[in-house]
Amino acid sequence: MLPKSLLALSAFAALAEQALALNSHRHLHRRQQLEKRAEHVQVLTVWTTVFVDAPQETEASPREFLANTRPAAEPAVPTIVPHDPVVYKDVNTAVRALKSAPGAPLASQTTLATSVKPSVQAISPSAGHGDKPAEPYAAAPSTQATTHRKSSEGSGSGAAVFSGKRGVAYNDAKLANSLSEKCDKCRWAYNWGSSPQGLDPKINFVPTLWGDQPRFTEHWKSDADKAVQNGAKAMFSFNEPDNAGQANMSPQQAAAAHARYMNPYSGKVLIGSPSITNSGQSGQGIQWLKSFMSECDNQQDKCRVDFCNVHWYSQPQYEDTLYKHLEDAHKACGGKPIWLTEFAPVNGAGQPAETPSFLKSVMPKLDGMSFVHAYAPFMCAEGKLMSASQLSDTGKVFASSP
Length: 402
Description:
30% of the residues lie in helices and 10% in strands. The chain is α/β, with parallel strands linked by helices. The strands form five sheets. The protein has a three-stranded parallel β-sheet with strand order 3-4-5, with helices on one face. Helix 6 (251-261) packs across helix 7 (285-297), helix 7 (285-297) runs parallel beside helix 8 and helix 9 (356-368) runs parallel beside helix 10 (393-400). It is globular and about 50 Å long. The termini are far apart.
């Protein structure tokens, strides 16, 4: 034990000597400061025990980290995107954030949509500048389509209500106003709700009765009346009732509610059918629309429908399914005009993608389809048509394309 004691005493003496030297060095540099303030002495006793037995490796505690090192990162948790997601950020404000991506078109079905409203099922169109629309997209309705649903009464034909087709789907009115200022051809806007929430009065607001639950219907009449007084030219019925994650209504339920809440405005504004997805699943999409129009025949007062409202989401390579969807909806609607009020391309994970080239391809074709009276891409929000308060690359295409 004597060698160990001697080593310990030697170590202590060395440390003490270093401490004295350090204090002296500091004293030389700080004499003037010390003379100007009260003396303060702090005594620090350092005990150091040194063992010099055979060297051994020590293991750090599982929770102990060495200086200048970082703990290993937590294992990443993969993000799971449901195959048929349908989620609204806020139903009360009718915010639809994202949608889930459709798979490749199947023989018997197409895919429908957001993240996602403001999360939702996703299906999108592509766009591009063409000198003129492809002829098949502007095909005139057949005789069968023209006489398909005599029951759903309404004007249904004639010139479009707006001088331009482009509209703005928004949740944030400030962003909508900013986009509209830069979009000379944007004529109308909607927010999945019945109140404009600060939209510039220069933009024609289209109120929407999102669903038939009391939280939507109890203030519908007052909001709709006000919109009509302020010059509204159109209104939308229920939002994706064919989608269990949205309004979720049977065709019969929707027809009865449509006649009750929408019919009173017939002749005052143009009335749109409930919006549908482009799902090919049984009882959804076009199939749901056909059933709705049929149920409208059974209503005592029929359903006043001037145009049909459709949505579409898919990967850009399936752009052609957009035009097929519009044509099918046109026929199911009895040859009446179509409003495309949600559409966007989605990526492989089913999330809406910002693809300026998609709009460049799609917009000229939509402009050339005579039965398509209005369209609004999904949507006026950051990461989509907007980047902060400025137009994104996609937004610039939408706002400035001829």
